[in-house]
Write a structure and sequence with these properties.
mainly alpha
């Protein structure tokens, strides 16, 4: 039996059917005004949420690297192979296959090596050296984050990986009670 007689249910995402038995605290909403309640669907798995969020952040790092590679592409055509390494990182987070992340890790290590080489050989001012050191530290932080993502991918069950590969996303259901 549906406890929401004469009430509208709005789901902003393509969610599966709502299990009405798990929805609580709606009894006090009968005063005629519109109330909003957020109900978390039972499908939200914290393990999947961590993996999904980490993949999303790594995708943002990939977008930034691709943007800067496109900027340098106009100066040097030799950056095209580096773009292929970065795109592998994108597909790794899209397909949740950790082995595809290895070329992206190689790209980050090459960029760190270039930064260290230029830092030691170039005669530049102290502000540029400071920015290079900051860039190296940020790249090392991104590498650590990627290794944590790979560690989580390796310990994931096949069911978790399959759900992520099939497009699992965290969902929030908003119910409008009139």
């Amino acid at each position: 039996m549906n406890p929401f007689n004469n009430r509208a249910i709005v789901t902003p995402y393509n969610d599966p059917l709502i299990n009405y038995e798990n929805i609580t605290d709606i009894e006090n909403a009968n005063n005629g005004s519109v109330h909003y309640a957020t109900v978390h669907h039972n499908e939200i798995d914290p393990e999947l949420l961590i993996r999904y969020t980490m993949a999303k952040y790594i995708r943002w790092f990939v977008y930034m690297d691709l943007f800067f590679l496109l900027l340098t592409l106009f100066q040097n055509i030799l950056t095209i192979p580096f773009a292929a390494l970065v795109i592998c990182g994108y597909y790794s987070t899209k397909k949740y296959k950790w082995k595809l992340m290895i070329p992206y890790i190689l790209y980050i290590c090459i960029m760190i090596g270039f930064r260290i080489y230029f830092l030691k050989t170039q005669n530049i001012n102290i502000a540029a050296k400071f920015l290079d050191v900051i860039t190296i530290l940020l790249s090392l932080g991104i590498l650590w984050f990627i290794f944590q993502f790979i560690r989580l991918m390796k310990i994931s069950t096949e069911e978790q990986l399959l759900r992520l590969r099939n497009g699992w996303k965290p969902r929030r259901i908003t119910i409008t009670i009139r």
